[in-house]
Amino acid sequence: MAAEAGVTDALRAAILRGDYAPRQRMIEADLCAELGASRFAVRTTLRALAAEGLIEVQRNRGARIREIPLAEAIEITEVRMVLEGLVAARAAERVTSAGQAQLRGIVAEMRRAVRAAELLRYSELNAGLHAAIRGAAGHPTAARILEQLRAQVVRHQFQLALLPGRPAAGPAARAAGDLGGPARADRLSDLRR
Q1: Which CATH number, 1.10.760, 1.10.260, 1.10.357, 1.20.120, labels domain 70-190?
Q2: pTM (two decimals)
Q3: Element containing residue 77 per DSSP (H, E)
């Protein structure tokens, strides 16, 4: 079972990196060779990733990378915003001094990335910021659902992150101020996008 989990993680990571294009067919024999996995492990992986919404399996046609229409990507983003607000509020209640320092450090790095126009670095840091907030919240159910939703729209997020001016205008960059004090929950919930 651990071997199948490793294959699933590897293929999920490849999809999220953009190694496969939307609607690209996932040929089992090719995946076996690429991933060094058995046919059983690849089939198990394809079923798992279909359940996550990353691929779709069509009867008698096989699997392919699922294309997320823009309208659905917007709906997913709206759901994420609500759930991320919950996570941010909970993180604000539970964040430790060390957690605050970590968040400040990430946001400072994000500002540097914006000034240097390092959009990919900014995107990586933004993902780290969200992960740190989820960690501070201590809400594994919300974290799991958010990760699944994020994975479904990652290609749309990448396109949005590359729009000129987007990182500088992002709430994470704006909310870099003091994360302590009575207004902390408001500032952390502003980090939710």
Answers
A1: 1.20.120
A2: 0.66
A3: helix 70-94
